[in-house]
Input
Amino acid sequence: MNGSNQITSIAIVGGGTAGWMTASILARILAACGCNITLIESADIGTVGVGEATIPPIIDFLNLLSINQQDFVNHTQATYKLGIKFTGWQAPGHSYWHPFGTFGIDINARPFYHAWQKARADGLTPGFNDFSLCAALGDQNKFRFPDNGQNPVVNGLRYALHFDAGLVAKYLRAYSERLGVKRLERTVASVRQCENGFIDELVFSDHSTLKADLYIDCSGFNGVLIEQTLHSGYIDWREYLPCDRAVAMQTSLVTPRPSFTESIAQRAGWRWRIPLQHRNGNGYVYSTEHISDADALDEFLTSVGESPLTEPRVLKFTGGRRKAFWKYNCIAIGLASGFLEPLESTSIHLVMSAVYKLLDHFPDKQFDQHNIDSYNNEITGEMERIRDFIIMHYCLTQREDTSFWRYCKSMQIPDSLAQRIELYRATGRIRHKSDDLFTDLSWFYILDGMGISPIGYDPLMDTLKTGQLNDMLGNISRAVHAAAMMAPSHDSYFNNSATQSIR
Output
């Protein structure tokens, strides 16, 4: 980047995970460009800091930044995550998996779930954990890393992390400051704008000021720049995602630590349980239209059943998104850009994705509107597809035991989601776009887990006779069980005396 139009200064308003993750990526990628990055965070404004579960792209993020994974795990009290186990969503007492990694192996160049569907149609009774190594390991409280060997079952394993969000922000702050990011402890009191609407400078409560070419709003739900100053507007998705509160609490560590996130359906929403090295994270996401705050708190405290380390903390939110994520010379990232409940652990991914897309659309001082529109369209599409994926967990429920679940079962859903469900219901096929966060496998896990049995399956599977298919299923199952049997316990990775290598 050369010339007078080059972006030479960036101001990030807000710290926490979103702010320091944004700073760390930009500092790493723009290091050779001579761009000055300043992050402003206020001691008077707390961070949400409860997002502690991630999905596999977090490993790509660490690799991008050349961060040693073991060092990161040690400093953030992280544990490993092989997927999410959903309990009580389809019906009380029922559970199913959304694991990471592969499910079986492709047969005749067709995704394995078509073979799974044919096996059922032929009267066979395959078991889910026979074909998902991540689910098999999770149910045994085990963990292992993928390797580069010849076993496709092990090679297809993927994992993510659970971590302490506060420690992650601290870790990434140190990383960013080593790369030259300047931190200012200030509170934004006002924002001065140019005649054309662009942000000119920030004015702090001590009357000092800061000018930048590009401003990034990581100020959380308040949206200090994108909403309070630029009035971007907000699109409310509560008709699809009725939960609008969360109560969170840290509890004492209970071992063995699961190698997965637990999502447990409650009367008016769902409860998470996330194991860390030193404690557990718990929370209840619920709808105030269907339960009072007091009753939700009582239900939460009763169901957790673990010794609290902190007082319960209530968070208010409205599921939805900004009408524009990028307006003029300001981009909203993290909670400032919108909010999707953490059911599929997408919040931190959306921060990373927004920064990656910013790099794909990195501006000069002209701030071309076509470029801005392209960025906004890409973020909008991603958020809407994730929204549909989350809605699917609710709308396919068979529960009718509370007003909340009756609403979810009968609510209107976006046409984009209805079309995907009906295609699967009729044919067993799942069509997804190449840039979808959730692949066809993830859609299969939820559709199958919520009890949708397709009428048909891929007819190309009929090239296999039932006996051939049964033999192939047996071979895959034995490979999964052998890999799971040889794996160590998840807890063994956090014994001080044990040294584990990360491949």
